[in-house]
Amino acid sequence: MIDLQKNQLAKFILFTSLYFAEGIQLAITTILVPLFLLNENISPAITTIAASTIMVPWALKFIFGWIVDSYRIINKKQYTLIGGLISALALIILGIINPSSNIYTFILILFTAQCGIGILDVSMDAWAITETKKKERGKINGSMMAGFFSGTAFGSAFLTFIADQSTFSISFVSAGIIILSIMTIPIITKKPVQQKKQKKLTKLVLKEFKKKTTLSLAILLPIISINSGIITLAAPLFMNIKLNLTVTHIGLITTVFTIARVIGSLTGGSISDKISRQKTLFFIIISTILSTISLILVNNWITMILIYSIIGFLNGGLFTVLLASSMDITNAKIGAFQFSILISLMNAGELTGEFISGPAITNLGFNGMFLFSAWILGPSLLFLYTIIKKGYFTH
């Protein structure tokens, strides 16, 4: 068995590959499933409801975190394997389900697959907290997010290609087999140190969130993530409506954006380990404000690629540093539960941005919406400055 404490390369490979599996699952949910349902003549209304329903586990990670920390008859490695196995097998089963006649069964099985990836996610994050040191968490989280974005890009391109060349069923089965093969990596690693079960788990979590540092980050995470939610959903609409780009061109530009996020994740994480999380966040937020404002100058695909790539680079770095900062303040005794709550808050902020992007475009237009999404980062910057000044954020 490989000891992660003694083999840093194995540590990077393990956590990057597991996040790659998560990225594949997200690509399936957000791209493959809607296309599959529409291809099976499921109405757009039902397709939207189905897609929204199966995304619920991503916003309820704290429940899985509570389970992992409450029931410690098995360790985090075993929880990770169970989550991956549930997800992989559910996807393989999807290959034989016809959603046009079994839509509810289809949604239930896919929901189960998402729950599996949710268990994998929180147990793996808790595992990473116990196996990493503060000085390397930026790089570790950078590799994780790079794996996640790479998995999303790979799933979006490869699985849709398979569906186009053969069938959607084969795409689902292929995804399940890929995730199943990735699960062989944690099998050969030494099990993590098992923390003692906390009898008063909720009480301990509340105690942690009463700390000014934890509470400050919990407030910052959803606010700072709104900009990302707005841009992520609005950019493709802008390219289609204002720039009159084809779906193929939009897909290519989005791929470049994703690659930039990968590079930004690795760069931002490494820099934050060297010069501190606060300074890195300040640079990223200010640069993102300026880059978002620059979107009002876009009038062709060339300038769109340039500015959108810069935003992607900064976005990848932002989430990496936020994840590393969250790990820094998480109590390892309740790592799965506490960390999953923080990430749920961050996800809630991004989902809020996605939700308000439509009304913002309708009422403000694209230029007004871009300016608003830049403005929304102002409070984040001021709040970050305040908590650093008061000594609540010292990492």
General description of the model:
With 395 residues, the protein is mostly helical. It folds into two domains: 8-194, Growth Hormone, Chain: A; 203-389, Growth Hormone, Chain: A (Up-down Bundle). The chain is built from 16 helices and no strands. Helix 7 runs antiparallel to helix 8 (168-182). The two termini are 33 Å apart. 48% of the residues are buried.
Write the layout of secondary structure elements.
Blueprint: H1 8-39, H2 44-54, H3 56-59, H4 61-70, H5 76-94, H6 103-131, H7 137-165, H8 168-182, H9 184-187, H10 201-209, H11 212-241, H12 247-275, H13 277-294, H14 301-329, H15 335-375, H16 377-389
Helix pairs in contact: 1-2, 1-6, 1-7, 1-8, 4-6, 4-15, 5-6, 5-8, 6-15, 7-8, 7-12, 7-14, 11-14, 11-15, 11-16, 12-13, 12-14, 13-14, 13-15, 13-16
Q: What's the gist of this structure?
A:
The protein is mainly alpha-helical. It has 16 helices and no strands.
Molecular shape: globular
Let me know the largest β-sheet: none
Structural category? mainly alpha
Rg, Cα atoms, Å: 21 Å
Class of the largest domain in CATH? Mainly Alpha
At CATH level 3, the topology of the largest domain is Growth Hormone, Chain: A
Domain unit count: 2
- Strand tally, please? 0
Distance between the termini: 33 Å
Residue-averaged pLDDT: 82
CATH superfamily of the largest domain: MFS general substrate transporter like domains
Q: Percentage of helical residues? A: over 70%
Strand content: under 5%
